[in-house]
Amino acid sequence: MIGSIIKSTGSWYLIRNDKGEIFKSRLRGKFKISNHKLSNPLATGDKVEFDEDKDYLGSYIINKILPRKNYLIRKSIKKKNNGHIIASNINQAIIISSIKKPFTKSGFIDRFLISCFAYRIPAMVVYNKEDLLSSKEKIKLNQEIDYYNKIGFNSLSISAKFDKKMKALKSILKNKISLFMGNSGVGKSTLINKLSNKANQKISKISNKSNKGKHRTTFSQIFDIDNKTKIIDTPGIKTFELFDMEKNQIKNYFPEFIEINEKCKFNNCLHINEPNCQIKKEIDKSIWKRRYNNYLSMIQDH
Ligand SMILES: Nc1nc2c(ncn2[C@@H]2O[C@H](COP(=O)(O)OP(=O)(O)O)[C@@H](O)[C@H]2O)c(=O)[nH]1
Ligand SMILES: [Mg+2]
Ligand SMILES: [Zn+2]
Questions:
Q1: Is the pLDDT of residue 213 over 50?
Q2: For 118, how many CA atoms within 13 A lie in the half-sphere containing its CB?
Q3: Which of 15, 36, 158, 255 allows an S-S link to 165, with CB 3.0 to 4.6 Å?
Q4: Partners of residue 215 on adjacent β-strands
Q5: Does 260 sit in the ligand 1 pocket, CB within 6 Å?
Q6: With a 6 A CB cut-off, is 128 part of the ligand 1 pocket?
């Protein structure tokens, strides 16, 4: 039989076939499917071949994974040499962010966008909780959104409380498989519940001390908004560490650097202290300083 993984806990998986039937499955023995060292051999979104377990009727065994159209990967939090596949076979990846309660760090947003770009997954930034912002803060946020739009990451500001904004989000998600990532507490589950009557995700109360929601979503899981519209919700994480990326490659994943890179004096310019670096000359002009600083922090991590 063939189906897609709709929920993965690491030790067992829920698979759904074309008819909508759901099977609880395990993996048979060791599974090597990638050249990377992975902390999770299978991820939500994977298409797999599976059979009933002859020894334990009613339980199922995954025998094979079908080729992935794409996938997004980050460094594993527990084992630094391993990659962790976040999801596969997706149409777009969205980082749900917020300026307040909690504040999403720009380093998280940019690491996420760079990884999506490297793995050729269309990516977006959706800022939730617009209702908490003053008009001054909204103007500042709109400048941020304009910059991301200009460099190819369609982005917008919404609030789970504003129906008109929810409509805009809905049309972006329509007929696609979208990945939701973000810090815990930004409103991922709230948005999924608003978009779908069925989802019924648990919402976490913001604790006043940290302004962060309690961790509730512990596993990645697919939610059906309608027949063709699906959202993969992921556990809230604090940041996103690049996996398997050479130091001198990172600059190629900043879309706004690409044409300028060629004009630097040295073609292996890392844009740190090299003479005649055009990227450095463009800071505060076509390149936003915050993006450049996040670039420096990414290459320093390596
Ligand atoms: N003010 C405001 N609060 C929101 C909004 N969206 C979600 N919340 C609240 O933020 C808290 C965390 O939401 P939750 O959906 O659990 O976040 P998740 O961890 O990303 O899934 C809950 O108390 C929600 O009611 C919003 O647009 N505006
Ligand atoms: Mg949640
Ligand atoms: Zn340079």
A1: no
A2: 19
A3: 158
A4: none
A5: no
A6: yes
What is the spatial distance between Cα 155 and Cα 157, in angstroms, rounded to a whole number? Answer: 7
Pairing of strands 2-8, 13-16: antiparallel
Dist CA 77 CA 80 (whole Å): 6
**Please, what CATH class does the domain formed by 72-233 belong to?**
alpha beta
What is the position in ligand 1's atom list of the atom closest to the CA of 193?
A: 15
Describe the crossing of helices 106-118 and 289-300 by its angle, rounded to 10 degrees: 70
CATH class of 248-300: mainly alpha
Q: Of 232, 231, 222, nearest to 174 (Cα)? A: 231
* Residue 104 CA neighbour count, 13 Å, CB half: 29
Domain-wise residue ranges, the chain: 2-68, 72-233, 248-300
- Nearest residue to 37 (alpha-carbon basis) of 93, 78, 91: 78
pLDDT at 207 over 80: no
Q: What is the pLDDT of residue 108?
A: 96
Backbone angles phi, psi at 246, to 5 degrees: -70, 145
How many residues does the structure list for the chain?
302
Topology at the third CATH level for domain 2-68: OB fold (Dihydrolipoamide Acetyltransferase, E2P) (2.40.50)
The closest ligand to the CA of 213 turns out to be 1
- C-beta of residue 67 within 8 angstroms of C-beta of residue 238: no
HSE at residue 211, side-chain half, CA atoms within 13 A, is: 8
pLDDT, one tens digit per residue, over 241-270 is 899 899 999 999 999 999 999 999 999 999
* H runs (alpha helix) in the chain: 106-118, 135-150, 163-173, 188-195, 258-261, 278-282, 289-300
Query: Mean pLDDT in the chain?
Result: 90
Asked if 78 and 120 touch (Cβ cutoff 8 Å), the reply is no
Please confirm whether the linkage preceding 102 is cis (ω < 30° from 0): yes
Q: How far is CA 221 from CA 23, 42, 48, 115, 121, in A?
A: 14, 13, 16, 21, 19
